[in-house]
Task: inverse folding
């Protein structure tokens, strides 16, 4: 098997909220308080082949955005390693690491918050490319025109500010900014969640065209199963910081293994379902400050057994190319 | 049987310094007792302003300048504030997208819910409290007795939205207007909220207007769907008709834009261009510049056509059996 383009091994990311002075004094005096630790990502491993589109699905607070940020190098992992083209990014030489981080770009959810409102569009798109020597000062203008045309923006608008664009156009600016440094890998964090349905379709089509044109690999983070089903080759389901299931898109939608995946699939609204009686799973995603022991999903799971509360299920292969972390797979 | 709500030719405009925004400009629909209507549109289509107009929450520079809103036979468009206060929260209730718009952050849940009952009923505090607690239980809040004493910030987003829905149902209204109540919530929580809302409507016989941009949500929930574009209802009919056999090119485009299993990996249909500027709507059909079927005729504003129990505004509708 070839080396995956990107691989993460046992990555954990914890955020610690330290006690303030008053808290420390109170703790000294015997109050039952301590530093609070959020296990945003907990021992996550994933390999992504070149050219693949991997959909990462989970509910809010499950750590999917944190994982995306660790992959994109915005957060450093607390534990574990991130490999790019087979090399550990943390152990790379400086120039090699620069190339690797340039090759991994991120597209953010909110096209209003992720663009500097005081920069012209041509600077937003061209700044990094010029700094990293992908174009010269004199060639910059043409370079920006070319990138803007690629994402379907009219290059004559490059001397405008972000607030003069609609939400869909801003998202295209964000995509152009990422493409300007010639990346190989894009992390799209809920990149279309804030857009209207008709604009969503335009941006999804753009992502698919760009994939073909530039041979891109995507980690497509979303809570929307129908979008992921449309665009992804493989789907990874995440719950409270852990991976629960990983399979090809056809397989996961046809034969979901984990009870959480089954619940997600059953409850996603679909156009072809009418007047159905919703019978949703109970409860909500627990706080990552105090995750339940054993399998994180057991308090909401309809099939929970005694061992689910004490023992973390192994993430193992249930059939070729399909892994899942559930004790039910040991039973039969 | 009379309709719970009848809206005819509703027009709500906003008189801004830069011009007139015709946020709602020709909305007609009616809802029978116990019916659920999905009001679908993209941002800026006027779907929320339609909801606000019905419940009488339009403030200057906005004004209802035309049309009628008949609620249980009574005209309530531009009714007096006094009369509206009697109706609001009692006979018509609204659930907002952000539950923190409904809930006061510095008051406990019980205080707010009891207040909502006492504003419309002369009951003892104890009765009001019991009623509030029971309603919390009805929307699926575990241990409602404890939750009654909580402040909104102590609850999760899904729980807050349940409290907002419970508050809306407190006085057993005849009509509930839900404005994107599940848009900010996760899929599993959304399913729970839809389930509770559907149940409560069945149990109390309330009618429901579910305002959303998500066609898939109303496909599974509503009896009827009205699709709005640029302030007008462009198509309405029974859910099966609108979803399976849309006639307006905008509805056709919208449905084609939704990713589904059988379009996997293929290009999605995309409506070209973007929503028009509401300050400067084009003459004639507002959709013509994005429409693949436009003709010179579209310079004239299309009137409502009624055919086989459905209504649409288009000169070139997709006729059934033809795509």
Result:
């Amino acid at each position: 098997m070839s080396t995956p383009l990107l691989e993460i091994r046992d990555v954990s990311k914890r955020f610690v909220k330290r006690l303030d002075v008053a808290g420390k004094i109170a703790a000294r005096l015997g109050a039952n308080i301590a530093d609070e630790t959020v296990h945003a990502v907990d021992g996550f491993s994933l390999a992504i082949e070149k050219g693949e589109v991997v959909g990462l699905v989970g509910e809010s607070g499950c750590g999917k955005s944190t994982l995306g940020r660790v992959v994109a190098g915005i957060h450093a992992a607390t534990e574990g390693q991130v490999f790019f083209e087979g090399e550990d990014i943390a152990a790379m030489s400086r120039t090699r690491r620069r190339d690797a981080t340039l090759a991994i770009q991120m597209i953010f959810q909110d096209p209003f918050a992720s663009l500097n409102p005081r920069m012209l569009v041509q600077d937003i798109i061209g700044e990094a490319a010029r700094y990293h020597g992908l174009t010269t000062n004199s060639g910059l203008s043409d370079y920006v025109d070319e990138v803007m045309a690629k994402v379907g923006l009219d290059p004559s608008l490059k001397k405008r500010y972000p607030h003069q664009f609609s939400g869909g156009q801003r998202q295209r600016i964000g995509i152009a900014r990422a493409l300007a440094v010639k990346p190989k890998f894009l992390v799209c964090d809920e990149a279309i969640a804030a857009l209207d349905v008709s604009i969503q379709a335009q941006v999804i089509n753009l992502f698919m065209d760009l994939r073909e044109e530039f041979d891109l690999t995507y980690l497509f983070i979303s809570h929307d199963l129908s979008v992921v089903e449309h665009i992804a080759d493989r789907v990874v389901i995440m719950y409270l910081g852990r991976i629960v299931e990983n399979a090809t898109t056809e397989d996961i939608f046809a034969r979901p293994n984990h009870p959480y995946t089954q619940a997600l699939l059953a409850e996603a609204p679909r156009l072809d379902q009418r007047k159905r009686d919703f019978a949703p799973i109970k409860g909500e995603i627990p706080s990552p400050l105090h995750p339940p022991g054993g399998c994180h999903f057991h308090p909401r799971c309809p099939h929970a057994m005694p061992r689910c509360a004490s023992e973390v299920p192994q993430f193992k292969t249930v059939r070729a190319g399909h892994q899942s972390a559930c004790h039910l797979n040991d039973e039969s | 049987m009379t309709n719970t709500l009848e809206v005819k030719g509703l027009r709500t405009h906003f008189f801004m310094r830069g011009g007139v925004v015709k946020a709602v400009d020709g909305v007609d629909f009616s809802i029978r007792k116990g019916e659920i209507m999905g009001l679908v549109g993209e941002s800026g289509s006027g779907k929320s302003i339609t909801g606000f107009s019905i419940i009488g929450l339009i403030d200057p520079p906005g004004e209802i300048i035309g049309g009628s809103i008949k609620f249980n036979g009574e005209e309530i468009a531009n009714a007096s504030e006094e009369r509206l206060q009697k109706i609001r929260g009692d006979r018509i209730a609204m659930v907002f997208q952000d539950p923190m718009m409904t809930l006061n952050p510095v008051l406990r849940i019980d205080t707010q819910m009891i207040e909502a009952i006492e504003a419309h009923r002369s009951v003892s505090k104890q009765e009001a409290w019991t009623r509030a607690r029971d309603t919390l239980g009805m929307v699926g809040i575990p241990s409602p007795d404890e939750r009654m004493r909580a402040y909104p910030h102590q609850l999760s987003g899904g729980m807050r939205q349940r409290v907002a829905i419970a508050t809306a149902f407190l006085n057993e209204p005849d009509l509930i207007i839900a404005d994107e109540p599940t848009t900010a919530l996760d899929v599993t929580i959304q399913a729970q909220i839809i389930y509770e809302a559907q149940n409560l409507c069945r149990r109390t016989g309330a009618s429901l207007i579910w305002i959303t941009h998500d066609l898939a949500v109303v496909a599974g929930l509503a009896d009827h769907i009205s699709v709005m574009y640029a302030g007008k209802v462009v198509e309405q009919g029974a859910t099966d008709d609108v979803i399976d056999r849309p006639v307006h090119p905008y509805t056709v485009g919208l449905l084609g834009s939704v990713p589904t299993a059988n379009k996997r990996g293929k290009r999605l249909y995309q409506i070209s261009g973007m929503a028009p500027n509401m300050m400067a709507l084009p003459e004639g059909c507002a959709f013509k510049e994005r429409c693949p079927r436009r003709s010179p005729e579209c310079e004239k504003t299309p009137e409502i056509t009624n055919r086989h129990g459905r209504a649409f505004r288009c000169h070139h509708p997709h006729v059934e059996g033809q795509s």
The CA atoms of residues 48 and 144 of chain B lie 31 Å apart. The two ends of chain B are 37 Å apart (CA to CA). The longest strand of chain B covers residues 19-31. The longest helix of chain B spans residues 187-204.
